[in-house]
Design brief:
Layout: H1 8-14, E1 22-26, H2 27-40, E2 48-52, H3 59-67, E3 71-74, H4 77-85, E4 93-96, H5 102-111, E5 114-117, H6 122-130, E6 135-139, E7 146-148, E8 151-154, H7 165-177, E9 182-186, H8 198-217, E10 220-225, H9 243-258, E11 267-270, H10 274-277, E12 281-292, E13 296-300, H11 309-313, E14 319-321, E15 331-336, E16 345-352, E17 360-363, E18 384-388, E19 394-398, H12 403-406
Parallel strand pairs: 1-18, 2-3, 2-11, 3-4, 4-5, 5-6, 6-9, 9-10, 10-11, 13-15
Antiparallel strand pairs: 1-12, 7-8, 12-13, 12-17, 14-17, 15-16, 18-19
The structure holds pyridoxal-5'-phosphate.
Pyridoxal-5'-phosphate binds near residues 96, 192 and 228.
Length: about 425
């Protein structure tokens, strides 16, 4: 069973100041999870998690993760700017972008970030723009299918990211000639994996590549970045990943592949987003309307503009009717938003307790790729973000958009030129 980290009483207190809808984050959960991750990889001296900013680009969240020893993974100009303002600089930043604009490379270089090149041709682009830094990373794409125990996890051969193995070898030779001294290897082969085997399998692949690269090019491998992809159980019946087992699995591959090759000083990095934040966020909305036609619908004051995953991936997000946690689930509803789009449904044919107008609806696991994927379709406004602090008090991290925010990017005045 999935239990919300907030009660109906707490929400009733918060809405007096900040009306629904809003995303709320659980500081205690975020900190405890970050500590579990750091502990699971504490066998590796240089281990560092670079939180994928795109998952939750909110300064109040980045600050908490910074206090837990995390860096940031950025892939755009504004993510770099936000990270700098939050106090991340130099090797606290991984810059893992693709189709990278010049200005993004320039800012990443100015901040001293670890730049991760997505493509072979980016070597020349970066060199011409601002020179090759002493530390540089390249992103690997092995092609084909990524399988664990004959089960296809994902399809890298179809993914736009990274370089082939031949390009990797050539890239490290050229980068070395151009003055790079320390190298990283990065790869992201499967998303939202519910398997304790994903990271260890990926690690083994990258460790073997590291040994080969060192042999063929003579470069010094400083770090191997396992990137994101460790998933969370969105459904109540799914098993959760065990980060301790995952950490031990990576250690085993490290001891079997890197240590015998004399590479026992390689640092392990991760760039997790979903695993760090998803379970520690809820989207809280209110039941606004009920309608009965061929099915029963509950319309909320939140919509897909606040949480896009169900609409674009058909993703499951668990729902709790706050205050009715122990009531029997005897009603079947489609839970919708108000967009003029029929895929604007948080749940389809979901069995829940009887919902009354005004009930607070908790949509689970929205802490990553939730608020951040929001958009303004139908003129809907982005919601507030609130932090539930460890001491039970709460703090506004980001206010809700107002109509004036929606209108801020164009100028009304020319409409009145003739007056
Ligand atoms: C999206 C992304 C991540 C984080 O992915 P999760 O699925 O949230 O763990 C990490 N690294 C890169 C380069 C990404 O694009």
């Amino acid at each position: 069973m999935k239990k919300p980290f907030v009660t109906k009483e707490k929400i009733e207190e918060i809405v007096k100041t900040y009306p629904t809808p809003f995303h709320i984050y659980d500081e205690k959960g975020i900190r405890e999870n970050a500590r579990r991750l750091n502990k699971a990889f504490s066998w590796n001296k240089g281990f560092k998690e670079y939180f994928a900013v795109k998952a939750t680009p909110t300064p109040g969240i980045l600050k908490i993760l910074k206090e837990e020893g995390c860096g940031v993974d950025c892939s755009s100009l504004t993510e770099l700017m936000m990270s700098e303002k939050c106090g991340f600089t130099g090797s606290d930043i991984m810059f893992s972008s693709n189709a990278t604009p010049d200005e993004d490379f320039l800012l990443a270089r100015r901040l001293g970030a670890n730049i991760n090149l997505d493509d072979f041709t980016h070597i020349e682009v970066l060199d011409k723009l601002c020179g090759i830094p002493k530390t540089i990373c390249c992103r690997y794409n092995p092609g084909g299918h990524f399988e664990i125990a004959n089960k296809i996890m994902d399809n890298p051969g179809d993914a736009k990211y990274g370089m082939t193995k031949e390009q990797m070898i050539e890239a490290y030779k050229i980068l070395k000639q151009k003055g790079a001294e320390e190298f990283g290897i990065h790869s992201f082969l499967a998303s939202n994996t519910i398997s304790n085997e994903y990271y260890p399998e990926l690690a083994r692949t990258l460790f073997e590549l590291a040994v080969e690269l060192k042999k063929k090019t003579g470069v010094k491998i400083k770090f191997i970045n396992l990137s994101g992809g460790v998933g969370v159980p969105y459904r109540p019946d799914e098993p959760a990943n065990d980060i301790e087992i995952i950490g031990e699995g990576v250690r085993k591959a490290y001891e079997e592949v890197l240590i015998p090759a004399g590479m026992g000083d390689v640092e392990i990095y991760t760039e997790l987003g979903r695993f760090m934040l998803a379970p520690y966020g809820h989207l809280i909305a209110k039941a606004l309307r009920e309608k009965k036609i061929y099915k029963n619908y509950i319309g909320l004051d939140a919509c897909a503009a606040n949480l896009m995953r169900p609409a674009i991936y058909g993703a499951y997000h668990h729902i709790t009717v706050l205050g009715k946690e122990n009531e029997p689930c005897e009603y079947k509803y489609d839970i919708t938003g108000g967009l003029c789009e029929n895929n604007d449904k948080f749940a389809v044919d979901r069995v829940l307790p009887k919902i009354d107008i005004g009930d607070y609806i908790c949509i689970h696991d929205t802490g990553a790729h939730g608020f951040s994927m929001g958009y303004n379709y139908n003129g809907k406004l982005r919601s507030a973000e609130i932090l539930l602090k460890e001491d039970g008090t709460y703090e506004l991290l980001r206010r809700a958009e107002k109509p004036s925010d929606y209108f801020a990017t164009f100028d009304f005045t020319h409409l009145f030129d003739n007056i």
